[in-house]
Amino acid sequence: MMFNLKTIFCFIFLSFILSACENNTYKNYYSFENGIWNTDTVVNFTFPINDTTKYYDISLKIRHTVYYEYQNLFLFLDNLSQDTVEIMLAEKSGKWLGNGINDIREFEFLLEQKKKFFELKKYTLSVEQAMRYGNLEKLRDLNHILDLGIIIKEHHE
């Protein structure tokens, strides 16, 4: 009986230690219907900040197919210090920069590193595609974009 109690105590202690070391991370994904990001679709990510003493890294994840027609992706952002970003998804040679297998690629883009939040509240980041082509003011439907994700995690040096 003593061995079992000691084993249970060790298990609880290790569980506590491992959970204390766990990186506080917020992840959320938005999936585009039929892999088409319409220009009218604004993706809103709402996330809580529960500790204003820490710094955070904020990344976007883009999942797309290898049939995506462009080398880059322009985005309009609202509620962060940047308002327009260009994300390079492929080299000039056509080699995809993201990871993946078969015909799906995933690319992580660091938006902000060591971001400080000054209020304990829920924040919202709004993202819309801002792709242009030729004389078009905006591409109405951006094909082969499957998902857009956000990752917010504590910054560690």
What does this structure look like?
The longest helix is centred in the first third of the chain and has 20 residues, at 2-21. A hairpin with a 5-residue loop joins strand 5 and strand 6. It is built from 1 helix and 10 strands. The chain has 157 residues and is mostly beta strands. It has one domain: Jelly Rolls (Sandwich), CATH 2.60.120.
Short description:
The protein has 157 residues and is mostly beta strands. The protein is built from 1 helix and 10 strands; from the N terminus they run H-E-E-E-E-E-E-E-E-E-E. The chain has one domain (25-154): Jelly Rolls, CATH 2.60.120.
Derived from helix and strand composition plus strand pairing, the structural class reads mainly beta
Strand order of the largest sheet: 1-10-4-7
Order of helices and strands: HEEEEEEEEEE
Approximate helicity band: 10-25%
- How many angstroms does the end-to-end distance come to? 45 Å
Which architecture per CATH?
Sandwich
CATH class: Mainly Beta
How many strands? 10
Count of helical stretches: 1
User: Which regions are unreliable across 5 or more consecutive residues at pLDDT < 50?
Assistant: 7-22
Describe the secondary-structure layout.
Layout: H1 2-21, E1 25-31, E2 36-38, E3 43-49, E4 55-65, E5 72-78, E6 84-88, E7 104-116, E8 121-129, E9 141-143, E10 145-154
List keywords for this structure.
mainly beta; single chain; 48% strand; Jelly Rolls; four-stranded antiparallel beta sheet; 13% helix
